[in-house]
Structures are given as structure tokens and as C-alpha cells.
């Protein structure tokens, strides 16, 4: 792909992750883990004492240090910006907070046209974000990539409509079908905010970005295509050609082709679908893409031999996908985020095995 450099962006000539996405042969198999920065690390728990999640995400010193902690410890090939899906909503002025043990919660759920029209749109900068990214870049080697972060429009919409996390997304689905125009307005406002949030990160120098659609797997194929795909596509279209892009969702095996069609360069695959089978679904719908994934996070707790065997299986599936013409490359990752109880040494060992044998 052709990218347009930002004045703040570093020149990375031998970064394994970027080389893999570009179809080159990387110096070593690229690996990074979702939620690699966070509760699995004792240094993270120590530095976060007394500081709320959203405050930590917007404090430039904490943002930089937390993002860099797993890179230093595990020698991964990319840092993922320490953030939360709802940070852009908070930055836009929405009354939202993260309640321990529950997750993001809004003061008033957004369920009618009046409330939708009042959802603020992020228009300016995000205090602390640009400075924090600058600190991260200073701490990375020139072969390590910084991946930006944003939640996808549907996942943000679900939090707003449900009022918090949901196991059914019943109010969200009801709004989609009873008032499609209002739904599209809400998604349009969120899309504008997400694009602006990523533009701030791009201007600060991120090397790639990932759009997380955490709740998309709760949708049918029909509903995803009608109510979600057009808006996610607008995010990728708005940022096309700037830096490589990644699209990821959980339990989205039946949606992989449609998610690929949204326009990202890389499609993340959770552990429920073998990589070669996922690649065929993606290629059929949108042509071959670079794959990312898909080690089961729970298996990091199972011991070295189990992890080694799973890495070998993933390597073989990725090779079959490339040989069949269904994939352009592969980035090792988990099928979702690092679990809080994961021993840090298990993560370090998995990265070492991937680099040596992957």
C-alpha cells in the first residue's frame, strides 16, 4: 500500500509488522498482543494505583509509560496505544465513566432522536494525547511500530444506547429496526468523532491503527451489512493511504468477509475460526488481505509446550492461506486480549517462540 507520511512520523525501514503488511519478508515474524499493556503486568498495577482508567489514558506521562511497559518487557514488535474505546466520547464532552467491575457507563442512555442529536462530536484536539504519543515514540526502537487505537462506530453506539455493557444489545437492535434514520444519525456522529480521534493520533505520529468492533459479533450478517458496514467503511475511507489499518472484532467468524470489505489492510481473526478458513472467507468477499491472530488468550496459561504447539498450528494455517492465494501475509496476535491472570513470563516466552520458530 502507499502511505502519506506525517511530519511527526518516524522513518521505519525494517519494522517487521510494517514489512509483513506491505508484503515484504520481515526480519522476524511480527507479533504484538491486544491488551499487552494492562492488568497482567505488576508494573502496570503499581503505576495505576489511585488513578482512574480514563484519567490514565489522557495523562501523557502515564499514557507513554503504560504503553511502553510491555514493549520493554516482552520485546514485541509493536506498541498498542494504551486507551479505551470510550476515550473519544469523553474527550468530546460526553458524560461517561468506567465503573470498576462493570465497564463504560453513561449517565443517560441514548435512545431517541432528541438524545441522539445531543451526542457531542469531537472537533478539536485531545488534551494529553499528542504529548503522550510523542513520549511513546521516543521510547521505541526504529524497528518497533506504534499502533493507534479506536473503537468502531457500532461498539460505541451500543454503549450509548444500552447505557453500558450488554449481553443482549436489545435496545441497540430495537433502535436499528424501529428508527433506521435515527440510528444512521447516531452512527454518523460517532463516525465523525472516531475519524477525528484517529486524525489526532496520525498527526502525532502513529505508524498504523486498529479499529476495534468489540460487539459486532452479536449481529446477524444482514444487520451488520445494513446498519454497521457503511459507517465502518467511512472510517477507513477517511484515513485511506495514511498508514496501514487493521479491523478486528470478537466472535465475528460469520462476518469476516463483510468486515474485510470495510477497507482495512489487515483483518484480525479470533481463535474460533482457523486462519486458513478465515482467509478463504475474507478473500472471497474482499480479495486477499493480511491476517492477524489468532492464539487463544487462555492458552497462555496452559504452559510452554501447549503454546509452542498452537504457534506451530497457526504458522501452518497461515502458510496454507498464502499458498492458496487467500492471504498476503500474517501478523501473530491473540484472538482477543491478554487475560488479567496471565503470567507475564508466559507472554515473554510466547513472543520468544514466535520470533525463533514462527
Task: Please explain how this structure is put together.
This protein is an alpha/beta fold and 358 residues long. Helix 4 runs parallel beside helix 7, helix 8 packs across helix 9 (170-178) and helix 8 packs across helix 10. The two termini are 24 Å apart. It has one domain: Alpha-Beta Barrel (TIM Barrel). Helices cover 47% and strands 11% of the residues. The model is unreliable at 1-5 (pLDDT under 50). Strands 1-4-5-6-7-8-9 form a 7-stranded parallel sheet. Strands 2-3 form a two-stranded antiparallel sheet. It has helices spanning 16-21, 42-47, 53-57, 60-74, 87-92, 113-117, 129-139, 153-162, 170-178, 180-204, 221-227, 229-238, 256-261, 275-286, 304-323, 344-357, and strands spanning 78-80, 96-99, 103-106, 145-151, 208-213, 245-249, 266-268, 289-292, 327-331.
Q: What's the gist of this structure?
A:
Catalyzes the decarboxylation of four acetate groups of uroporphyrinogen-III to yield coproporphyrinogen-III. The protein is of the alpha/beta class and 358 residues long.
Work out the helix count.
16
Tell me, briefly, the overall form: globular
The CATH topology corresponds to: TIM Barrel
Q: Report the C-alpha radius of gyration, rounded.
A: 19 Å
Tell me, rounded to a whole number, the average pLDDT: 95
Distance between the termini: 24 Å
Total number of strands:
9
CATH class: Alpha Beta
Q: Helix proportion of residues, in percent?
A: 40-55%
Q: Would you identify the CATH architecture? A: Alpha-Beta Barrel
What ranges have pLDDT less than 50 throughout 5 or more consecutive residues?
A: 1-5
Portion of residues in beta strands equals 5-15%
- Strands side by side in the biggest sheet: 1-4-5-6-7-8-9
- Count of spatially separate domains: 1
**Main pleated sheet:** 7 strands, parallel
Structural class: alpha/beta
Could you give the order of the helices and strands?
HHHHEHEEHHEHHHEHHEHEHEHEH
Pfam families: URO-D
Pathway: Porphyrin-containing compound metabolism; protoporphyrin-IX biosynthesis; coproporphyrinogen-III from 5-aminolevulinate: step 4/4
Family: Belongs to the uroporphyrinogen decarboxylase family.
Binding site for substrate: 35-39, 84, 159, 214, 336
